[in-house]
Amino acid sequence: MTTAAGRIHRIAISTGGGDAPGLNAVIRAVTLAALNRGWEIYGIRDGLTGLLLPEKYADGGLVRLTRNSVRGITHLGGTILGTTNKGNPLRFPIEGPDGQIELVDRSDELIRKFRLHELDALISIGGDGSMAIAAALSAKGIRVIGVPKTIDNDLDKTAVTFGFDTAVAFAMEAMDRLHSTAESHGRIMVVEVMGRYAGWIALHAGIAGSADAILIPEIPYDINRVAEKVRERDEAGRNFTMVVVAEGAKPVGGEVSVIEKELGRAERLGGVGQKVAEALEVLTGKEARTVVLGHLLRGGSPTSSDRLISLRFGAAAVRALSEGQDGIMVAIDPPYVQYVPLTEVAGRMKCVPLDSDTMMTARDLGITFGD
Ligand code: F6P
Description:
Layout: E1 2-3, E2 10-15, H1 23-35, E3 40-44, H2 49-52, E4 62-64, E5 92-95, E6 101-104, H3 107-116, E7 121-126, H4 128-139, E8 144-148, H5 164-185, E9 188-193, H6 200-208, E10 213-215, H7 223-235, E11 241-246, E12 258-260, E13 268-269, H8 272-284, E14 288-292, H9 304-322, E15 325-326, E16 328-333, E17 336-341, H10 357-364
Parallel strand pairs: 2-3, 2-7, 7-8, 8-16, 9-11, 9-14, 10-11
Antiparallel strand pairs: 1-15, 3-4, 5-6, 12-13, 16-17
Helix pairs in contact: 1-9, 5-6, 7-8
Bound molecules: 6-O-phosphono-beta-D-fructofuranose (F6P).
């Protein structure tokens, strides 16, 4: 963590990676806190693409933010600036003359444009990918403050990321609804949730939504163990079973289920829920149905907890700049917001600790992890 000298006149803000409920609340807090200090603030369109490809945008890719532009947006899902998960300036996808996509490092060009617009600092809101980009830009001399966002909650060095609580609340509500139909039909209901290579959403939604089995990437599952759970429940007169599967879960000795791999983008996961349901039908002879919650987890209005975290992060990011901070990410360390060096965050992932009390709670409740 370093402290940067120099007065601030004008800052930029960007939202990168998959959207998450709470992004607009951060934008509002950053904008108001910056304007209240007499700074100008500009929003970059679609991650950093607004700076790299300004010709794509009617407003030039950089939009001046005022009190008016951020009025009434705290409760709105999505991001008023737009976002992308294929705009990494260090590996920017460009179509070559042969139609092939090449990845090009455009970070120096980005920095030149940043300076041309006389921007003094960047507040970068994003997940692990955006924090790695922020760290690289910081190393190249841009003054950067990171704000951690992701429904997956898999960013290291912060107790929680905003978007996670909203995703869990929605998944839990979906499970409440699915319970009654599973019970009426005496079926196995398999609910697949996002979360990439970490099982946070599945674990929290599964416990809160009274799942009987939770399959997470951190524990490769044995489908026979899940089938045993179904049989045990049947014998106890409970003719239905609720299974939550994280998209990144994999069987013992098997691989994660990948839908698509595209150059310059993270692989798209999905399909494990259907595989689990099919295998359970074969092993138990019961009917199974799969529900993939997918992007429903990312949409809609942020919960009160996510709104508050987002507003706290936004205000803290501006305070950090006022205090001369540089190259840090704001992070929740209850009851405080702390500053963590971006270099300590980039490239690190936070998985579910298997000895956590949340895991023990699940086991004490009789929930199986397929192990
Ligand atoms: O990281 C957030 C997330 O929603 C993951 O849970 C999921 O795997 C991925 O993004 C989906 O990305 P996309 O919006 O590109 O389908």
